[in-house]
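Appendix B. One record, verbatim.
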Amino acid sequence: MPKNLIVFEETGEICLKFNQAPEYLTYRTKIIKKSSGKNPVCIELTFIGIWPYAAPMPPEKHRINAENISSLFPKVAKWAYKYGYTLC
């Protein structure tokens, strides 16, 4: 059986804002698209920056899998909302 090959890989940053206080978090992102599989698209989030003072802290490292890039964004937004943050 052939191994999944990485077709596309991109790095960037994502900013999260806490809804109830002026707290911001920054995550380094790495989006990976593989050639096949059930969920061939994934994003790896790694926290960079200063820890929040009054807001809850999401995990420092997290990975989200999706069927395509279009369904990846709502999953990231839902994950951030679970901890009280929105994407900015």
